[in-house]
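We modelled the chain as a single entity of 154 amino acids. Its sequence is:
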Amino acid sequence: MEDVKRILVVAKSTKHCRKAVSCGITLAKCHGAELFVLHAVHNPFNLKGWNLPLVSLPSLEEEYAKILKDAKADIDGLIADEKAKGLSIKELIVEGEPTKEILSTIEREKIDLVILLAHEEGRIEHALFGRSNEEIIRKLPCSTLLVKQEPGPA
């Protein structure tokens, strides 16, 4: 693993990704690598182009803006101490279909190692987000580290 110079941690749900981010920080320190922390946000309220009679569209847009703001605050909280100590960490928050955005980021940033959270998805999570880890792993141009972290009860 001496050729690992750019590490990407994918933080799908910042409540459950602390272990993956911690692993990324440790590996970045050990290998003198640059660390990227990515949070891909899928807009569940993207109703542009639809001709739907929705009265509460502005409130949906406000809710989505809050989701983006909260994602940024969560990532900032996870990495602030390490950035202050001088570790090179780049925060990325991208909007779009998560699998596509993750793969695009890997190519654009020339990532050597991707760290993903590996946990069993519940039925609702699978219905909403699919099994994106499987798709990502099949298409990766680099090595992968899966970090086991089961989410707690909802």
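As a brief sanity check on the tokenised model: The longest strand covers residues 34-41. The chain has a mean pLDDT of 77.
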